Amino acid sequence: MTTEPLVDLAALGEQFTRDPYPAYAALRAKGPVHRVRIPEGADAWLVVGYEAGRALLADQRLSKHWSRASPTLGVSKVSAGSSMLGSDAPDHTRLRKLVAREFTPRRMEELAPRIQEMTDELLDAMLAAPDRSADLVEALSFPLPM
Questions:
Q1: Whole-number Å distance between alpha carbons of 137 and 143
Q2: Which end of the chain is flanked by fewer CB atoms within 10 Å, N or C?
């Protein structure tokens, strides 16, 4: 059995930061799961195959909860929060049932105008910045409620 070498994502450089898709395509060609070193220095598993990703998300042996993250990632209870997205069953199932009725296709259609309005306001604020640059996550993703 051969072991694939660890892929150091930081070593892929600025090109990977700007356009990671060619690197992901090369990894997919080799297989769906790879050991990587993330820029923060921790070793992790990177899943680049759809079927493997679906299987892993359904695997109860794996966790999304912040308390089970590697200490080298610097994840804290404060930074990770206690959201449905970061919880495991049975908490995830319980929380999902509570919010499911608010996420029906009809309800999403009703919310679309307000979501568009909020998105436009956030984009306008980014365009109004003196240097017309912004961190998309900070300026759009975080303030826009999910």
A1: 9
A2: N
In whole numbers, what is the pLDDT of the chain averaged over residues? 85
Closest CA to 42 of 75, 11, 73: 73
| CA nearest to 20, candidates 31, 12, 28 | 12
Q: Torsions phi, psi of 70, nearest 5?
A: -65, 135
Question: Cα separation of 57 and 50, whole Å?
Answer: 11
DSSP state of 86: G
Six token digits for residue 41: 């220095």
Model confidence over 49-95: pLDDT tens digits?
999 999 998 888 887 776 666 666 555 444 445 677 778 888 888 98
Given a contact cutoff of 8 angstroms between Cβ atoms, the answer to whether 62 and 56 are in contact is yes
Could you check whether the bond before residue 90 is cis, i.e. omega within 30 degrees of 0?
A: yes
Taking the domains of the chain in order of start, what are their residue ranges? 1-62
* DSSP for residue 9: T
Cβ-based neighbours of 23, under 8 Å, separated by 6 or more: 12, 16
